[in-house]
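Before the break, one more example. Copy the sequence into your notebook; we will annotate it together after we see the structure.
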Amino acid sequence: YKLNNPDRYILASPVIHRSYSEPLFLETDYQIPEYELNNKMLIPQRLHQYSAYINAWRGVFSGENILEEYYYMWDCYFDPGYMQIARLMYDDMRRYNELGFKGIIHYQSQRVFCPTSLGMNIKARTLWNAQCDFNAERDNIMSAEFGKDYKLVVEFLEKLSNDRLTDIFRFNVKKNAPGNTECFEQAIKTIDEFLPVIHGNIKTCDGVEKVSWEFLAFYSELISLVFQGARNVSMGIMDLKDWDKIRDFADRNEWKFRQYYD
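Here is what the structure looks like once it is written out:
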């Protein structure tokens, strides 16, 4: 069927069940099942299904369409370095632009500028200019935050965004799968080795750069406690004291960082 007056409508596409392990597909071979009037509508669960439904709607609706997305509602917490989710938003914004979407509504946490502002800024810049270059924009954003040592921060956070860690937190692998313990131990070691760099810059920097390094120090210590608890779980050790440490650390720092991190 077709709408006689498509300009009276706005098509909203919520993608609440999608995975954030990879960006949206522009094309897919998925065949949409024929709709039946049985109150059992099939809700897309995977990216290729969403792509098929979006492309199918484009064939019957020429009016304005907007997107409802959930990057920072929960998936950001499954990416310890926040670098994968930033790149994924960049790729998605470009693809949604190609698909003809005119706007986006974000259902998300409000304070998502810790450990860095990269995700929110790269999303905004790509919405403004879908042809922008990710690496160039990333370097511009991160250098404004961290100054001369920003490349060290990029390298550090990319290590925390490795595929194994994100797969564990997204439950793509079992919590006690072989290799998980070593993965968490390596992440803890990565943080321990980088903390002197963080604290050194806190001492020598001022203004925005100093505040950014302070955010990174807080976040690094917090996520290290999470890694320690998750490492113990991967070893079969279920100790509530591990999670008490995380809560206590967050409580002690909440007032200072409440405007930037949920």
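The chain has a mean pLDDT of 90. The CA atoms of residues 84 and 132 lie 18 Å apart. Try to locate both features in your own notes.
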